[in-house]
Specification:
The chain is built from 1 helix and 19 strands. The two termini are 28 Å apart. It is mainly beta.
């Protein structure tokens, strides 16, 4: 889940100033499940006093979470595997509209991952506008679950680190990591991460005390003690 910042320079003979154009997205993580209605609507609204022009750009994430990760763009939704509609919006101040995400290809044996950029773009510039306008956009995460979910996240403690690996076919979110001393004192928080299928991740530890993590996956929530 990412928030993006863009800027546009508006030229004029007037004294430069900085303005902020903001759109709001109701949900930044979308999960589409097989065997159900494989679509979901997200609300977008204009939280600014000016009209907002919004562009939506979906990308397939290949090898998510791995060193070879890359974004793939295709104007054909059937080839991309995900329909995002509409591709553009015009929002009046305070106006709300729905953005639809729909899985339009047969279920696969591995989770498909997408990033959808939702960003305001500059409309027509009038002569009395000046300065810098900051445009705030978003990078929504869309996960299309496989027909049969296999959850297998392994963790191995090796010296001053824990090595995590996702050997299943769906992603899992590692969060609320915590390590305390052997006496249960001096606890520190540990970083979290979304671990995609086939990906690995190592966490450096502060001491040799016990570690706890919460693992969230399509099958539910569990606690892992290491």
């Amino acid at each position: 889940m990412k928030r993006l910042f863009f800027s546009a320079l508006l030229s004029s003979v007037l004294t430069p100033s900085t303005a902020r154009a903001e759109i709001v997205v109701s949900q930044l993580v979308v999960e589409l499940q097989p065997g159900k209605v494989a679509r979901q609507d997200v609300e977008i609204w204009n939280n600014d006093k000016d009209r907002a022009y919004v562009a939506i750009e979906p990308h397939r994430i290949v090898d998510a979470g791995q060193p070879t990760e890359r974004r793939v763009e295709d104007p054909d939704p059937e080839k991309l595997g995900l329909l995002v509609s509409p591709a553009r919006m015009v929002l009046e101040p305070g106006q709300h509209k729905l953005l639809r995400f729909a899985d339009i290809v047969p279920p696969s044996d591995r989770e498909r991952v997408y990033r959808v950029t939702i960003k305001p773009v500059v409309g027509d510039i009038t002569a009395n506008q000046s300065g810098l306008k900051v445009l705030i956009g978003y990078d929504a995460l869309v996960m299309v679950r496989p027909a049969v979910a296999i959850e297998k996240v392994t963790a191995e403690r090796s010296g001053p680190r824990i090595n995590w690996r996702n050997e299943g076919n769906v992603s899992a979110e590692l969060s609320e990591g915590r390590q305390c001393s052997s006496a249960g004192q001096g606890c520190v928080d540990l970083p979290g991460k979304r671990l995609y299928p086939g990906a690995s991740w190592s966490v450096e530890l502060k001491n040799d005390g016990p570690v706890e993590y919460v693992v969230r996956s399509p099958g539910g929530i569990s606690k892992r003690k290491l």
